[in-house]
Amino acid sequence: MTTRQEHVEHLKQKLDQWNGELSKWEDKARLAKTDMRIEYEMQLEALRKHKETATDKLKELQESSEGAWKDLAAGADVVWADVRSAFEKAASHFQK
Question: What share of the chain is helix, strand, coil (3-state, %, to 5)?
Fold first, then answer.
């Protein structure tokens, strides 16, 4: 069983990884041709919104009491699974 701090640290590491991927894809979008750039920007905007939601959940976990964090973690894990799925989908798109 993980502690709140371990769970938060794991989520922070994942968020850092997503930030790095997002940065790479933003660079790729800037260099793309106009038609592809529009498509990339739409994908990036959706990812930014997912990442913002994940960041908000992370803050909730960090600010939660020791007794409440497990309940919040279950909801946060659902959000993070959605974000992970969105990033995996985007990764296959940006790898083309």
Answer: 90, 0, 10
